Amino acid sequence: MDTARWSPPSRRSSWLVLSLLVAVLAPPARARAADDGEVVRVLDWTRHTAQERPFVFTRDPSTPSDGVLSVDYAFGLGSGIGADRPLPINMASASGSHTINAAYGLGGQLAPFVSASFADTGTTTSTSNVTAGLTWQLTWPGAPLRASVSAAMVHEGTGGANGVSTLAAASLDLGRVRVAGNLRADRIFAAGRDRLDTFMMAGASTRIAGGLRAGVEYVGQDLEGMFAADAEGGARHAIGPTVALDLDGGRYQLAVGAGFGIGPRSPEAIVRGLFAFNL
After folding, report:
1. Is 138 exposed, middle or buried (0-12, 13-18, 19+ CB in 10 A)?
2. pLDDT, tens digit (0-9, with 9 covering 90-100), for 43-52
3. 53-62, 110-119, 217-226: range with highest mean pLDDT
4. Long-range residue pairs from 96-100, CB within 8 A, at least 24 positions apart, any chain
5. Rounded distance between C-alpha atoms, residue 146 and residue 58, angstroms
6. In a 3-state reduction of DSSP, which class is residue 265?
């Protein structure tokens, strides 16, 4: 009985496989010059961290550089009833919200994180959340097209409910312009809560000069309420401007944005600010 004999791959095939592995696994070049003389940014190794924050509501898919600890504080006006929610459910009882987040870069593409947030509700009580999870950047940090996914466990201090939160983020650089989008889904395991809370954030930002950027963002919250009754009273939408400043190669980052409601259930206006420093 004849048996098939294994033969080693040809030298040409071996070089092809090796070239593909190098293209996928090797880090990108620092920069290259286009035909028209414009420098095409790939990854600026002189930055303190590769993570950028051009938006205040929309999460950029970038993560802290390897070995960098990133800490940020966010403050929002009109963000009551759920400290991690960008849009308030009840403006009459909404006041300010505070969130502290810390993330640590592992290898430049993984970042475990933990955050604590609480919101004043205009009464003697406040809502609070503690979140812990991991962000995985699926693409090279300096690539023009980037994507990441995050998953986290959530514990609500008021009521003691637990849940999970997932977020997919993507961005694309087109010269000075960056467009980005987020899809987020939360599931809180408690009576009287929606089976799934869905969010969508999107933004476009233009680099004005140096680390200064300006743009516009859209926030959609409780989008499941567009198709069926939900526990929060329906979907909410807002759109507004954002200004961001990146200093000392990303060591210090600041973003401030506002949103103006679209539709009867949405707040008339909200304001949010974020300050981050990277160690």
Report:
1. middle
2. 677 789 999 9
3. 53-62
4. 96/120, 98/73, 98/74, 99/73, 99/74, 99/75, 100/71, 100/72, 100/73
5. 14
6. coil
Listing DSSP states for 131-148 in one string gives: EEEEEEE-S-TT-SEEEE
Residue 16 belongs to what H/E stretch? helix 11-25
Could you say which DSSP state residue 82 is in? S
What's the CA gap between 157 and 99, in Å, rounded? 14
Tell me if 220 sits within 8 A of 203, measured CB to CB.
no
Question: Residue 230: its pLDDT value, please?
Answer: 63
Question: What pLDDT, on a 0 to 100 scale, did the predictor assign at position 187?
Answer: 92
Sign of CA dihedral 201, 53, 153, 127: negative
> Dihedrals φ, ψ of 48, to 5°?
-70, -35
Residue with tokens 């791959």: 9
Please state, in angstroms and rounded to a whole number, the distance separating the CA atoms of residues 241 and 218: 9
Q: What is the DSSP letter of 190?
A: S
Strand residue runs (E) in 2-44: 31-33, 39-41
Domain 49-278 class in CATH: mainly beta
Which residues fall within 8 angstroms of residue 199, CB to CB, at 6 or more apart? 86, 182, 183, 184, 185, 186, 219, 220, 221, 222, 223
Domain boundaries, the chain: 49-278
> Given a cut of 80, is residue 18 above it in pLDDT?
no
Report the SS3 class of residue 21: helix
CA-to-CA dists, residue 208 to 84, 95, 214, 259, angstroms: 30, 33, 7, 21
Whether 61 and 169 have beta carbons less than 8 Å apart is answered as: yes
**Three-state SS for 24?**
helix
